[in-house]
Design a protein that fits this description.
With 201 residues, the chain is of the alpha/beta class. The chain has two domains: 2-150, D-tyrosyl-tRNA(Tyr) deacylase (D-tyrosyl-trna(Tyr) Deacylase, Chain: A, 3-Layer(bba) Sandwich), CATH 3.50.80; 171-200. The chain has five helices and eight strands; from the N terminus they run E-E-E-H-H-E-E-E-H-E-E-H-H. The longest helix is centred in the C-terminal third of the chain and has 28 residues, at 173-200. The chain starts with a strand and ends with a helix.
Length: 201
């Protein structure tokens, strides 16, 4: 599952001449569901959207508060084009979940979000409609989320994140390769010296 999360000062959705939804300060989320997504993917995305610290605190310190901390609104818009695969220059969307399956799945995501937060602050567009989405991005701040393909158990995710951080802190690849080359040269020199000594005996 993919989500594009934008911090906004306001956002709205129109279908034809009718305005379907609008929000003030908060988040606008474009949400794409793939054919392989499960309940675990939905839970991960909902948790991340509601807990991303994209807002300042009372003292003006940036990246301190979530949309829930600030009691701001969230506008969700279904967006199957996030699962686009290009065939030459032509977009292909076969990785997206078919509409007849995606709609109830999308509705369940909205229900989860409303259950976890405040129902009246979660808005959405019109699934499957041709929409005009008006977004006034604040910052601009845009965050891309992708649900993990592996297990989504919190302990497992925390362990995976720590392992990734350790790998990133290790010496750069170039230095690792240089160190390996020097070690190989050293081993070769030791082997040559050892062979020479045996021959003298």
């Amino acid at each position: 599952m993919r989500a594009i999360v934008q911090r906004v000062t306001k956002a709205s959705v129109r279908v034809g001449e009718d305005q379907i939804s609008s929000v003030g300060r908060g988040l606008c989320v474009l949400l794409g569901i793939s054919s392989e997504d499960t309940k675990k993917d939905a839970e991960y995305i909902v948790r991340k959207i509601l807990n991303l610290r994209l807002f300042e605190d009372e003292n003006g310190r940036a990246w301190s508060k979530s949309v829930m901390d600030k009691n701001f609104e969230v506008l969700c818009v279904s967006q199957f084009t996030l699962h686009c695969v290009l065939k030459g220059n032509k977009p292909d969307f076969h990785l997206a979940m078919p509409a007849e399956l995606a709609q109830p799945f999308y509705d369940s995501i909205l229900e989860n979000m409303r259950s976890a937060y405040k129902p009246e602050l979660i808005k959405d567009g019109k699934f499957g409609a041709y929409m005009q989405v008006h977004i006034q991005n604040d910052g601009p701040v845009t965050i891309e989320l992708t649900s993990p393909s592996g297990p989504t158990d919190p302990k497992t995710l925390a362990k995976q994140e720590k392992q990734q951080l350790r790998r990133e802190k290790c010496c750069p690849k170039g230095l690792q390769e240089l160190s390996s080359q020097r070690e190989a040269q050293h081993q070769q020199q030791v082997s040559t010296n050892s062979s020479g000594a045996e021959g003298d005996m």
